[in-house]
Amino acid sequence: MPELVYEPLREEHAAELYDGLSEAAVYAYLDERRPASQDALRRGYRALAAGPPEGSGQAWLNWAVRERSTGRCVAVLQATLDTQGELWFGYKVVPAWWGRGVATQSVRWLLAELRERFPTTPALASVDKRNVASVCVLQKCGLRLLRSERTAVNGELVEELTYGAGEA
User: Fold this and answer.
1) How far is CA 159 from CA 71, 118, 128, 139, 148, in A?
2) Best exposed site among 39, 48, 99, 117 by fewest CB in 10 Å?
3) In the chain, which ranges are E strands?
4) H-helix or E-strand containing 103?
5) pTM for the full predicted model
């Protein structure tokens, strides 16, 4: 399993992550589009690093994940405490690093980080049921299925599963 380092996400990470995170496979089960350009990804990362609007009651936490021995950025982690007080998290792994334990190791790290920062707030993640690899990651990390609902992803009606950690 690779040794990973977690860094606060900065706009400069876009140059390292753009090629891998612009691959179509990353977005097969996500209701979001691939970044249109490296500059667009950089602007997005700049906005995330700046944080939520003041007074919104939200918290935005974002990290780049770097593999220590190669120095390569291999993933991003995101967590958001929303205005309803729900704590949602997600991740994207560069496809060249799929199947190497990056997602599982990163989600375990993120859950520990979120428990430390928000000890009484359950962490939640949603996943398209067809994304078997991500379902397995969430289950390996000890999250439990809370609910299933039909929703549109990229214009297609799919079953979305919501998993929770903590007292959800």
Assistant:
1) 37, 29, 6, 17, 7
2) 99
3) 4-8, 59-67, 73-81, 87-93, 123-128, 144-153, 156-165
4) helix 102-117
5) 0.93
